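Reopening this one. Same input as before:
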Amino acid sequence: MNLGRPAAARSGGDAVARCRRLVEPALREAVSVLHPWSARMAAFTLGWSDADGRPHGVAAGGAGGKGLRPAVVLLGAEAVGGSAESALPGAVAVELVHAFSLVHDDIIDRDEQRRHREALWKAYGVGPALLAGDALLALAVKQLASAPAAMTYLSRALVELVQGQTADMAFENRPWSGPNAVTVEEYTRMAAGKTGGLLGAAAAIGVALGGAPELAERMWGLGRDLGVAFQIADDVLGIWGDPLVTGKPVHSDLRRDKKTLPVLAALASGGQAAHELGALLASGAADDASLRRAACLVDEAGGRTASLALAERYLSSAEQTMDECLPDAADLRDLFASLVDRIS
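Same output, byte for byte:
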């Protein structure tokens, strides 16, 4: 995988920072209509304040995320000759849906931390967190109520997201080996929905609101391809990532018996390391020593290499679509490259 693109990463980061400055005031206005308690939880989720409501003094997407998806919307609009301001409702909508999905994901996965802070449910309780997530989703839909072309892609993304999350949960109840084991093909379909759907919506909504709705379907496919590559990168970080960077414990996905691509690809390789890994997972890798051994076996069986190769395939497909649809969109191209270059 071509990870040596520091100039692209810098350029992508500059574009995201510019878009973040545009999006934050619109996001704050959107959540200001909520019940004060929900608004406080929304501010915590979006990184504007701590659990006690004290301001952090950071921009939207700071402690609460990188603001990648709204940047895709705004840069997509600019790439087809529109203004970033014209696409602000779409940018706000996708960021609110993303925040909603993370709130619910943390409850489902029982993750107690999100980006080095308590998860919303841990800080406020499960019931309040669910209500806050629902409020964010309702506000997202409201943003695009008067833009049916854009709303088509947001609603499609919501269906894909729920389908993908459901598949991901269902995987947890399936065995590591045998005829009912999760396949790499099933994994990629799950990732295209769970992660790709919202990126696809961001890309499609951006060009639609920017004045080129005829490109929206192609950009939807591009975003889904990028989503698979992004999810694979996330899976690699979930096993080998630095906790100081990821905000989660080392080997966190292995600790939860999560069916991630590096493990599935390793088990499918069929060698000695794969057999030993299968036996270890079947017996339950719970302590630190067995988790370290499992991570080594995944690597020895080719899981990391296969994952990076598959991510590169999806990234190349997305880049081909960019070449055909938006060949001169340098900022958007650099941003897409930065999505997966984080695993270098």
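So the earlier flakiness isn't reproducible anymore. For the record, The chain has one domain: 6-341.
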